[in-house]
């Protein structure tokens, strides 16, 4: 195995979800300089250095669904990635939704496996991946909204009603964690992140 392959495999192990259940693969990379979650701009959150996605990450615009009572967002939608990975089930779709105050957003877990997953990753090809939804914003040390960790394809969903005008950034822990810290997760290069814009105009 040459250096490039070795580096790539290490990255794959690090970023694709093994950290959800153990931190052993995440050690040795703590660095405050690669913490991109502090920006309050949507673009800063969705277009940062997620190295396993083709730039720009946020290329599908804003899904304007103002006036709807309930809006659905898929969890684990297939998304294009950089070679040699082709595409993987590591996106929220729509990535950014604009809704009215009082709207309930319902995240629905898809059943997409990762068909092109290379050997050696924690989840074998064809198997479902775990995803969750967690708000970037914390209130009193607790996520403003957060789901449980569900395996894709188990007909799971999570709902949250957004009452106040504002910008709500969120991520999937194993595939989009935006910080280097001691949480047991680590900054994730896949960039599985999204936003709910609540607007009353
Ligand atoms: Cu995920």
Q: Mind summarizing the main beta sheet?
A: 5 strands, mixed
CATH top level class name: Mainly Beta
Please state the structural category.
mainly beta
Bound molecules: copper (II) ion
Q: What low-confidence regions span 5 or more consecutive residues with pLDDT below 50?
A: 1-10, 18-35
Shape descriptor reads globular
Question: How far apart are the first and last residues' alpha carbons, in Å?
Answer: 56 Å
Q: Secondary-structure element sequence?
A: HHEEEEEEEEEEEEHE
Number of strands: 13
Strand content: 25-35%
CATH topology: the name is Immunoglobulin-like
Radius of gyration: 16 Å
Q: Give the proportion of residues in helices.
A: 10-25%
Plain-language structure description:
11% of the residues lie in helices and 29% in strands. It has a single domain, classed as Cupredoxins -  blue copper proteins (Immunoglobulin-like). With 201 residues, it is mainly β. The site of copper (II) ion has 6 residues, from helix 3.
């Amino acid at each position: 195995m040459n250096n490039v392959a070795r580096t790539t495999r290490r990255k794959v192990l690090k970023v694709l979800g093994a950290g959800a259940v153990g931190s052993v693969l995440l050690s040795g990379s703590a660095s405050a300089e690669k913490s991109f979650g502090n920006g309050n701009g949507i673009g800063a959150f969705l277009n940062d250095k997620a190295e396993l996605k083709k730039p720009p990450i946020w290329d599908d615009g804003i899904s304007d669904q103002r006036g709807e009572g309930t809006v659905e967002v898929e969890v684990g939608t297939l998304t294009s990635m950089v070679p040699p990975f082709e595409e993987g089930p590591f996106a929220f779709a729509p990535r950014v939704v604009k809704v009215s105050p009082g709207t309930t957003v319902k995240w629905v877990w898809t059943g997409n496996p990762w068909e092109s997953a290379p050997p050696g990753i924690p989840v074998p090809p064809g198997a479902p991946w775990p995803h969750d939804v967690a708000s970037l914003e914390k209130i009193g040390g607790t996520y403003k909204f957060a789901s449980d960790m569900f395996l894709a394809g188990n007909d799971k969903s999570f709902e949250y009603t957004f009452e106040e005008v504002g910008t709500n950034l969120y991520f999937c822990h194993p595939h989009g964690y935006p910080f280097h810290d001691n949480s047991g997760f680590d900054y994730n290069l896949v960039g599985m992140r999204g936003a709910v814009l609540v607007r009353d105009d």
